[in-house]
Amino acid sequence: MNRAAAPWAAGSTADGSGAGLRVAATERHDQAMLRMIDQIEARLHLLRITAPARLADAGVDLGAAPAVLSAARAAVADGSLGCALLTAVKFP
Description:
alpha+beta; two-stranded antiparallel sheet
């Protein structure tokens, strides 16, 4: 994996070389991660209204959700959390 082209993957060990693969292209999709965080927040709001007992039974701490969602958004913003598509090719 070209670490210079993908500095966000510097800690990754899943480069595929052990399987005979070479990463040919990488695409960042951090907006998809932010949309997912937004969807989680919306679903928690809906469940807070429609199924509070089920959330309590599952041990979901709705009071902690805003801080966790905020931390996730901050991690996306600073590049420590993200979503990417890696395209790999098989080499001999």
